[in-house]
Request: fold
Amino acid sequence: MLKSQIIIVTGAIVLVAGLFFLPKVVVKNPSGVATQESLNNKKTETMKEESHTMEVSENQKQKLNLFKKNLLKSTSTQEQSQWTDSLIVAFKAVNQWDSAANYAEKLSEKVNNEAAWLKTAETYFEAFTFALDSTKIRTLGQKGYTAYEKVLSLNESNLLAQTKMGVLYKSLNPQAPMKGIQMVSAVVKKDPKNELALFYLGTFFAERGAFPDAIDRLEKVVAINPKNPDAWIYLAQCYEETGKPEKVKEALTNVLALDISPEIKKELEKKIKSIR
Reply:
């Protein structure tokens, strides 16, 4: 499971909630690494499989073909950027993330600027997150890592690229994750209020069962951004692991106040009522 902790951040609250509410056999890993053999894993994979087998409508096919033709006819960089962006959005709409990333990369190779490479890196990151095949997972992750390197070659102070590189390194090297963790830690040293880096560090600590350290980072995240549902969900699970039921209730209640789906809201309310 190369990318387990990434699913949460990009895939959002439904997967996190699944981790929290479904039965746990070994809960030393709130980020979802395969130590938790529960119904949750099957549900998550089913959801992801369905997203990848999404049928493309005739209208969507026509739109993609039109954008491709317009891109081929484009003579200026501005036009190429416009039609590439349109293709990226259209491919994402039908869950063809790797195709979106490929087109983003082609444009980046032409314009070679920080913004283009960052879009390429972020799109590969998303593609990596949603890929199912293990070979494709590694390939997309490595491509994302390389694209973030390109970003840093143009702007070495880009903290988003530094953070995501650390996350990818850790995920692609599960037997030697410390370098990736140190890369994310370095971002927090430079920017102690970096929400994304703090969040990932929180998940890393939770994954190792270091719940007090995880809570420390995640509490900083929600202090910076009280509207981060993933951080609240992680906090709730960490509080549960450390025997703090009132804190669990508080964290989940904070999620209820956010913009979440009715289904998730219902599950949260049931969980809160069950806490003694």
Observations:
- The longest helix spans residues 134-154.
- Confidence is low (pLDDT under 50) at residues 1-15, 21-52.
- The two ends are 34 Å apart (CA to CA).
